[in-house]
Amino acid sequence: GAGQDVGRSCILVSIAGKNVMLDCGMHMGYNDDRRFPDFSYITQNGRLTDFLDCVIISHFHLDHCGALPYFSEMVGYDGPIYMTHPTKAICPILLEDYRKITVDKKGETNFFTSQMIKDCMKKVVAVHLHQTVQVDEELEIKAYYAGHVLGAAMFQIKVGCESVVYTGDYNMTPDRHLGAAWIDKCRPDLLISESTYATTIRDSKRCRERDFLKKVHETVERGGKVLIPVFALGRAQELCILLETFWERMNLKAPIYFSTGLTEKANHYYKLFITWTNQKIRKTFVQRNMFEFKHIKAFDRAFADNPGPMVVFATPGMLHAGQSLQIFRKWAGNEKNMVIMPGYCVQGTVGHKILSGQRKLEMEGRQILEVKMQVEYMSFSAHADAKGIMQLIRQAEPRNVLLVHGEAKKMEFLKQKIEQEFHVSCYMPANGETTTIFTNPSIPVDISLGLLKRETAIGLLPDVKKPKLMHGTLIMKDNSFRLVSPEQALKELGLAEHQLRFTCRVHIQDPRKEHETVLRVYNHLKGVLKDYSVQHLPDGSITVESILIQATAHSEDQGTKVLLVSWTYQDEELGSYLTSLLKKGLPQSTS
Amino acid sequence: MAAHLKKRVYEEFTKVVQQQHEDLSAKKLRLTKPSKSAALHVDLCKATSPADALQYLLQFARKPVEVESVEGVVRILLEHYYKENDASVRLKIASLLGLLSKTAGFSPDCIMDDAINTLQNEKSHQVLAQLLDTLLVIGTKLTENPSVRMRLVEVACKHLTDSSHGVRNKCLQLIGCLGPVEKGVAKEVESQAAKDVQKIIGDHFNDQDPRVRTAAIKAMLQLHERGLKLQQAIYSQACKLLADDYEQVRSAAVQLIWVLSQLYPESIVPIPSSNEEIRLVDDAFGKICHMVSDGSWVVRVQAAKLLGSMQQVSSHFLEQTLDKKLMSDLRRKRTAHERAKELYSSGEFSSGRKWGDDAPKEEIDTGAVNLIESGACGAFVHGLEDEMYEVRIAAVEALCMLAQSSPSFAEKCLDFLVDMFNDEIEEVRLQSIHTMRKISNNITLREDQLDTVLAVLEDSSRDIREALHELLCCTNVSTKEGIHLALVELLKNLTKYPTDRESIWKCLKFLGSRHPTLVLPLVPELLSTHPFFDTPEPDMDDPAYIAVLVLIFNAAKSCPTMPALFSDHTFRHYAYLRDSLSHLVPPLRLPGRKLVSSPVSPSITPHEDPSQQFLHQSLERVYNLQHLHPQGIQELLEFTIRDLQRLGELQSELAGMADFTATYLQCQLLLIKALQEKLWNVAAPLYLKQNALASAAAKQILEETYKMEFMYSGVESRQVVIIHHMRLQAKALQLIVTARTTRGVEPLFGMCEKFLQEVDSFQRCFISELPHMQGSFVDKLLDLMPRLVTSKPSEVVKILQTTLRQSTFLHLPLPEQLHRATANIIEPTGESDNPLRFTSGLVVALDVDATLEHVQDPQGTVKVQVLYPDGQAQLIHPKPADFRNPGPGRHRLITQVYLSHTAWTEPCQIEVRLLLAYNSNRSKASAKILKSTWSESLEALPQSENGIEGTIPFSKPVKVYIMPKPARR
């Protein structure tokens, strides 16, 4: 799922022989089988547990975790599921709510049960931020802060030296209750990024906030009612804090309601996971926890008919079902009222329809609803905009980028931009499509300390830019690589050392006596090779470091001297240089 | 055996140290030098294990070493260094060497060679690094000597190839601190290493270790600080470092780029991947802007801060920082700011809400949108939205600085600053308000902006509100609706927070005087006058009404047509307010009332001089009339004191001066009165009454002298001498009085002794001032000193009495500026009739808000005193954070005082006042002694034998009605 599409996030990654499933979401737009990912794609027969090494859930939105109980209990999966602590805490609440709406309200059967949710949550392993979790011996995962909603995380999946970062949904600009996503320069082979706002660059959030407050304030002053459809968790809390502080500052009296049930439980978790929130809340919670609202009260269904102004937060966020839709139906007829859509709406939902300007809606039972109330759209959705996505790519420096969770047309634009500016290849597979990325794995080799020290002592300081040549023996044994000094390698393998010598004859035309020739060669070499120790031995041979040069007269032609140059293979470099030098002949000037 | 020896040596060692310690406090003996180094030597030789040696060294390091013996100690340490095998001991020795060469007065060139030699054979990297550190210390002490520096730099260059990052680090540091700065020197000394320090350092920009890279950049910056002109070639290298993996490298690199941009602002650099070229400062600006969205907040803060100081950047680039091209589904979208502006210019104010207001407009060419590369784009937008408030504050500061230098930018950044008024963190809001105030000369607020600004008036934080009032004081408003809006909001603020009264009035005063023409059309509405009907007269005590009047009167000052709109009672109110709130209401030229107001205003400046003259004249008069009849002197003094006091009341500029001298004269008067001959000639038994007078006088003089010394800011040492002199006289008087009244000699001995000690310390403190004191009490006393020391108490007293009477009266020179410390308690007001009720035994918090003027170091001296009706007094030390400093010489104390008491039957009043605590040891006189002895030893401080601590009340007490109720059972 989530390939060139928003909703139903479900991505399969195979990395160095490991299979990881990223997110397991449902689709808001469908009510039939299409709402869940097609798990038969993974394996037709046989259990999923055998095939998947682990499942990672990035955050608690239903389009990222909605199919989890179905997947683990109904389809059958017993392996580990990883998510952060807040996600683990809040996720079951949302799943239960989702189940209730689908089963109790719509009367669907063949849906997962409460028990299934509980069973499913038992398989969950909670992780901390920046904690490296070893799934098995080779596979490790690590969570990074992602903003977006409480407990949202980006995950780095690493096998050996290959790694993938999955961003889930993230936000690069901090908001009233959460900080900004952050990742270190981990240089993954592949970055899987969401791209909901691939073609948008948003205005400063301060303008947005002010605009929002102004709109709400004006409507309330006029005596109208404001409906803000939200998902129970996430944006709702930010808007609550925003309105709460505003109400306090302006000393407003109009009631603010929040649809009950879910919220109380969820707010409880928000109070609990203070460490996951932004700087301000973390700093002030000693005096007062920002999530203990003074002005915001629980909503009762009867309140919707109360006269006078009010502000109501109601779930769900896309007006596709539940309380928000009920309230919307009640209030839609009055032009004094207002509905503010604070986030993205998937195609097919009522929210999407009214946002695209539709004023007459066909409801269930062929009933036509005329929308007279004002419809406002405020992009409070905490996804990274195009600039944010680019910023994250810059931070992480991946070698490849893969875009998911967005519309194809928009992705196209972003893809082009990424390729143009970072010069990395970018992919955007559709659902069911597989993208193969070739990595350039580097293979780590253990090196003995003695060898390393010896080799670095020779020559200059190690330079980042230049590869360095070193002598050693590579031993491949028991699936590990080691680089050791030749002596040690010999010892380990129990082999005797063999000397390999190259010997080369160089003919030189020189009529003089042998020892004079030797002397000339000696002087010449000494002049050329200033950095090496050149010695003239008493037995009439010359050594340059460990290279031996001897001169004999040619047996047939006394005028031709044969220079015998001999070196071990370790000195190959110098030896071949010497021969080429000698082949050029001696300088004519006799010295 | 060894253990025994060691013990003995150890004992010896400690003994020697102690001895040396005593020496220090008394007189220095040269003897210490051999003993100390010898002890160390013995110690180190006997140390059996490295751990032992380390212990000795540690102990040794705790004791100071005097200058003369440093060299000896160093030799011994070095000797031991060569012998030592353990790296940790060598490390300690190396660090000790550095410590020792820091000793003041010691010139380390003699040990430099040795220090360099030790480097040669050292294997341990840690020790090597420490040795280089020592060399750095030596080098910094010998900066004047170029050849030494050259040598050290050479040494450092040699060790740059070391494999340990620590060593390389230190080498770079050394080069940075000591590398040649002047071109000439480099030429003279034809050394290879010194040829190009910059190149050497630059090579290490690519070091494999991030710490070394950082050190390299820092060394480069250090060179720059020392005056070396960095080469432009470094710029491209530094730019590469901006993409480093490590934040400290990036942070340093940002700094380096900034430095280079300041050095070569106008050079041209090419833009990679295109043929264009831009100015270096612009390029650097773009790069630093880019760093505002760095991953590490430390770098972000750094970048944001530096942006502020890049004023040479071209405006085109500058304005980009506020521009973030918005788009939505690939279509260009206008920012909310732009929309607001358009709305404004099209003249549509009412609601302005149209459907599809922010609908995206034109299509954007996909190719033309640069998402990330266009560096400067939106840097401030990002900075101001940052997660960390540190970054936001830095960004606001930078905005402020840039806006101050560029009016057009100021205009542009206004929207963003206004937005920052709604930040979630108070500090940021405060900072942005202050910023706005600073740039307010360049800007005019639009109405919608003013609206946002004014919304902040409801903020619950007092600091924010007051900052905002100050901002409003100096803003320009464009329309009369704006003024009206501001007034309405300020009045709303006034009703919500009545304590803001003063600051709101002040704010309206400036608002009125800045916008007379805008206020004019509002006048009838504000005064609610009607062309035909008389309206009821508003309540004169209503703060809101006063606020409106303040606005109008200040506007009327430069708008002569305005008074015509006033009704009768307005004129009456004017007269009243002009008198009661003269600092807020300016003199007006009112028709038919010219006489009332006009003479005051123009005459202020010329009047100043005469009053100053008057002050001096009256003082002259007093000083000249030394030999008048005692009665005459007394009368003259009394009149002069009265004159001075009145003068102080009339002329606030001279108040400090006048009060100061009046106090002095008062002391003198008391002294003269107490010494009147006829009183002293009365036989002792009949003497009690006069005695009481004299001792009371002495006591009062003492108190007054403390006041003079500690309550006035700007008192110089000349005055201090005279004050102390006066105090000495008072003490003499005290002594005489006690001598007269007590029987027996024994108690007198002690007192005489003490007095003579005081004379002695006076002499020591003010030896330089003594020549100015011809004929004074002290002068005479010192002449008689040899006699005094030997004579009996009764004689001493007699001598004192005559000297006191004969001594002349010292002329008190006046300093240029003299201000009396004053405090004014704003809250509690003391007007409330409702008692503050609380359960006895528990505490109640009382908010205290006071302004302090001319108080030096209020954190240390100002105390709050609470006096309960039962005479119980409580002294509270406010926290240092409770003091704010709104302006030079002004402080504000906002604190909470906790009260508690047992149950009372009915409410009663307690008194709250502010006290100025003093300690005679802290005075300027004794500070001198401190300074002179400081360098020798800390312990050798003169003990506070005469350290008198006391407090001076310096504010009017405020009564608070409280009622502790008995606890309910």
UniProtKB/TrEMBL annotation, chain A:
UniProt keyword Metal-binding, yes or no: yes
Record keywords, A-Z: Cytoplasm, Hydrolase, Metal-binding, Nucleus, Zinc
Cofactor: Zn(2+)
InterPro entries registered for this protein in UniProt: Beta_Casp (IPR022712), INTS11-like_MBL-fold (IPR041897), IntS11_C (IPR048662), MBL (IPR050698), Metallo-B-lactamas (IPR001279), RibonucZ/Hydroxyglut_hydro (IPR036866), RMMBL (IPR011108)
Gene Ontology BP annotations: snRNA processing
Every Metallo-beta-lactamase domain range: 7-224
Boundaries of every Beta-Casp domain copy: 236-354
Keyword NADP: no
SUPFAM superfamilies registered for this protein in UniProt: Metallo-hydrolase/oxidoreductase
Molecular-function annotations in GO: hydrolase activity; metal ion binding; RNA endonuclease activity
Main location (coarse class): cytoplasm
Gene Ontology cellular-component annotations: cytoplasm; nucleus
Gene3D superfamilies (UniProt xref): 3.40.50.10890, Ribonuclease Z/Hydroxyacylglutathione hydrolase-like
Entry-linked Pfam families: Beta-Casp (PF10996), IntS11_C (PF21386), Lactamase_B_6 (PF16661), RMMBL (PF07521)
Family: Belongs to the metallo-beta-lactamase superfamily. RNA-metabolizing metallo-beta-lactamase-like family. INTS11 subfamily.
Name by which UniProt lists this protein: Integrator complex subunit 11
Source taxonomy: Eukaryota, Metazoa, Chordata, Craniata, Vertebrata
UniProtKB/TrEMBL annotation, chain B:
INTS4 8 helical bundle domain: residues covered: 612-815
Domain Integrator complex subunit 4/Protein SIEL C-terminal Ig-like: from-to ranges: 824-966
Subcellular location: Cytoplasm; Nucleus
GO biological process: snRNA processing
Any one of the GO CC terms: cytoplasm
Top-level taxonomic group: Eukaryota
Primary localization: cytoplasm
SUPFAM superfamilies tied to this protein: ARM repeat
Coiled coil: none
Pfam families: HEAT_2, INTS4_8HBD, INTS4_C, PDS5
UniProt keyword terms in alphabetical order: Acetylation, Cytoplasm, Isopeptide bond, Nucleus, Repeat, Ubl conjugation
InterPro entries on file: ARM-like, ARM-type_fold, INTS4_8HBD, INTS4_C
Keyword Transcription regulation: no
Family affiliation: Belongs to the Integrator subunit 4 family.
Subunit structure: Component of the Integrator complex, composed of core subunits INTS1, INTS2, INTS3, INTS4, INTS5, INTS6, INTS7, INTS8, INTS9/RC74, INTS10, INTS11/CPSF3L, INTS12, INTS13, INTS14 and INTS15. The core complex associates with protein phosphatase 2A subunits PPP2CA and PPP2R1A, to form the Integrator-PP2A (INTAC) complex. INTS4 is part of the RNA endonuclease subcomplex, composed of INTS4, INTS9, INTS11 and inositol hexakisphosphate (InsP6). Interacts with BRAT1; interaction is required for the assembly of the RNA endonuclease subcomplex.
Protein name stated in the entry: Integrator complex subunit 4
Gene name per UniProt: Ints4
